[in-house]
Amino acid sequence: MILSFYSPYFLIGVIIILIYALYQQDQLINQSHRYSEAQFKVRYAQMEQKYLASKQNLIVSLQSFPEPILLLNEKGEIISYNDKMQQFSKKILQNKHYSTCFFPFELQYFIVENEKSHHQQKIAIKLNNQYYMIYKEPIIVNEKLTGNLIYLNNITALVKKDLFQQEFIQNASHELKTPISVLKGMLEIVLRPETDEQLKNQFLIDMEEEVIKLESLVHQLLSMTKEPYLVEKTSIVFEDLLTRAYNNSKIHQRNMQFVTEIKQPTINCDEEKMVVILTNLISNAFLYSQGDEVKVIYTGQNIIVEDNGIGIPEEEIYKVFNRFYRGKNIKLAGHGLGLSIVQTFVERQAFKIDVKNKEKGLQFIITL
C-alpha cells in the first residue's frame, strides 16, 4: 500500500511514533536508578527532543489533512485536531473529554458506540446539510488500544450524483414510454392488411414526426448525462457565442425582432456549455413568450435574456428549472428539459441564474 501524506494511515504512523516516544520517556523515568544524574539528563533530553519533533510532525500532518480530523487518547481525551473539525464545535479543547465539545448528536453517538473497539468502524451520516462518511481508526501499540483517530470524508457530491442518476433513470423511463407506445400503436395499424394506403401514408408521416420528437428527447437526455462536472473555461468573444446560439435556435425562421446589447467583448466561460445555455434561453423566449421581441444583454457581470411576452404566473415561476416541468398553458411540443439543462450548466461554471417577471415579459439573469 502506498501511503499518501493525506492518508489516515500515515497519520496513525506519526501518532504511534509519538506514543512510542512518550513510552520511552516513561520507561526511562522508571529505570532512572540505573543511570547517573548526568547520564539521565542527557538521555531524557534526547527523548524530549524526539517527542517534540514527533508532536510537531503530528500537528503539521493534522492541519494539512483536507478533511475534519480528531485524535483521542485511550480515555477519550482530545490530544489534537485540525481547524476543519471546528465547523462541528467551537468548544474543542485539548486534554478535555470529547463529550465536553458538544458535537452533533450523530457524531457523538458514533464515538461513544465505537471508542472501545479494536477495529475500524465507519458510518454515513448527514451533518450541517452535508453528507459524510465517518471513520474511526484504532491506534494500537503492543496489542493495547492507546487511542482513536476520528476523521470525516465529505461524500456530498457522490451522494448527489447517485440521487441524480436514480431520478434521471426514473424520469427518462417515464418520458420515453409515451412516444414509444404511440409509435408501437401506429406501427400495428400500418401493418394491418386491411389498412388502406391513404391512412398508411398519413400514419407514416405521423410516425416520422414522433421519431423526430423522440430524437430530440434523446438528445436532451444525453445532454443531461454528459459529464457536467468537467468545466473548461476560456476567454471567448461573446458575439461569436451568441451567433452560434442564434443559429442553433432556428428562431431566425420566425418574424420576430432579435436585439443585442453587448457592453463587453469577451467572456470567461466553458464555450460549449454556454452555447447550450444561450440556445435554450433564446429558443424558449421565441417559442413560448407570445411576444414579438427577444433581447440579449451582456454587461461583463451579467447575461440577461428577456422577452416582451406574457411571462409566467408567479405561483409557477419557482418550478421553471425543474426537470420535465411544463407550464399549464404551454401548448407547443416539448419535454420540459431545456431550462433544467441550463441551470445545471450555469451552476457547474460557478455562475448563478435567476428568473423573474417584468412589467411585460420574462427575464432570465445569469450572474457571472
List the keywords.
368 residues, Beta-Lactamase, alpha+beta, Heat Shock Protein 90, single chain, five-stranded mixed sheet, Helix Hairpins
Short overview:
The protein has 368 residues and is of the alpha+beta class. Helix content is 45%, strand content 21%. It folds into three domains: 8-153, 2-Layer Sandwich (Beta-Lactamase); 155-225, Helix Hairpins, CATH 1.10.287.130; 229-368, Histidine kinase-like ATPase, C-terminal domain (Heat Shock Protein 90).
Your description of this structure?
- This protein is α+β, with helices and mostly antiparallel strands and 368 residues long.
- It contains eight helices and twelve strands.
- The strands form three sheets. The chain has a five-stranded antiparallel beta sheet, with helices on both faces.
- Strand 4 (130-141) and strand 5 (144-154) form a beta hairpin.
- The two termini are 44 Å apart.
- Mean pLDDT is 77; it is low at 1-6.
What is the element layout, followed by pairings?
Layout: H1 8-30, H2 37-64, E1 69-73, E2 78-81, H3 105-114, E3 121-127, E4 130-141, E5 144-154, H4 156-191, H5 197-225, E6 233-237, H6 238-249, E7 257-262, E8 266-270, H7 271-288, E9 293-298, E10 302-307, H8 338-348, E11 352-357, E12 362-367
